[in-house]
Amino acid sequence: MTEKENTFGIVASMTGYGRSSGESPAGRVTVEVRSLNHRYLEISVRAPKGILFLEPEIRNLVRERFSRGKVELFISHESDAPDFEIDLGRASEVAKALREVAGMLGDTVRLEHLLAAGQVVTAREVEIPEEMSQTILEAVVEALDRMLSHRRTEGKALAMDLDSRMENLENKVLQISGLAQEVPDRVRRQMESFLESAHVGNIVDPQRLEAEIALLAQKSDVTEEITRLKAHMAAFRTALSSGDPVGRRMDFLLQEMQREISTIGSKSSHPVISGLVVDFKTELEKTREQVQNIE
User: Are the CB atoms for 274 and 268 separated by under 8 Å?
Assistant: First the structure.
């Protein structure tokens, strides 16, 4: 692990997968769990009816580990006990009736005729004894922990990518900040050039000219926006190293950055600043797409 990686908290992705299984005298249970991006925590448990009595406890196990994402658990059970039963009484009655008909037609009765009558072979829900609860819950815990590890591994890669993108954005703000200091002189030169081309420079009151230049420079001043932008980026880095679920916090900070950079773009007439604003917005959108994956 690099020195920079050590500064990150435990950032987790919202996508992951885990699988586990367990055995007991009552059979074998297999648990698969997967998670996808979601604004909140949504839990879905799919299991045989005999296992659903554990659903509240299973949901609590999920909540203990995750705060966001669509989490789906699939639980299956296998045992040596047959999952069907044959109604011998029904089979005897059907066979007797079929033989009578077959005798009238000079035909024979075969097994497929018996089964086609229905209600002879029926599916049976295998009962899962309560003593298997511990085996099931242990398999659920192991599957969830494996998915958690998967989400954290993916989150570490996301954190590295977000750190790189934030550094890129910080560099662009640094360039904008330097160029913004040139705005008053640029406004002055533009005003003087306009007056000269209009041949009215010698009749304009110098004090009035200074006042107009100061007013235009003030309207183009983006110092406050840059200050707030830097504060939002610092807060983003703090969130990245906090170790808490910060996806929604990061998304909010990116929205605020979007607001400030848009204001800078509308206030500044500097062509280079305008180009940097476009680049900033493009990188910001890519950053936001990545943040959508963060828990």
Answer: yes
